[in-house]
């Protein structure tokens, strides 16, 4: 469990400058159900495509393609 005093404004000062995706990640990573699902996927040596698809769909995740060229 993440131990942050959610009542302390200083604990979230960095959130003012987060883009939407960063804010969504901060919110999602604190969700116990998400963390449980992620741990189950990560513990599997090779999760099959249907498991990954269900995980992505349940949590609304998108993984953009890697760029073809390095910046």
Account of the protein in words:
- With 71 residues, this protein is mostly helical.
- The longest helix is centred in the middle third of the chain and has 12 residues, at 32-43.
- It has helices spanning 20-28, 32-43, 49-59.
- It starts with 19 loop residues before the first helix and ends in a 12-residue tail after the last helix.
- Helix 2 (32-43) runs antiparallel to helix 3.
- The chain has a domain at 12-59.
In short:
With 71 residues, the protein is an all-alpha fold. Helices cover 45% and strands 0% of the residues.
Radius of gyration: 15 Å
How would you describe the shape? elongated
Which percent range fits the helix content? 40-55%
The fraction of residues assigned to DSSP E strands is under 5%
Overall strand count: 0
Q: What is the average per-residue confidence, as pLDDT, rounded to a whole number?
A: 81
The main β sheet shows up as: none
Q: H/E series, N to C?
A: HHH
Structural class: mainly alpha
DSSP helical segment count: 3
Could you list the spans in which at least 5 consecutive residues all have pLDDT below 50? none
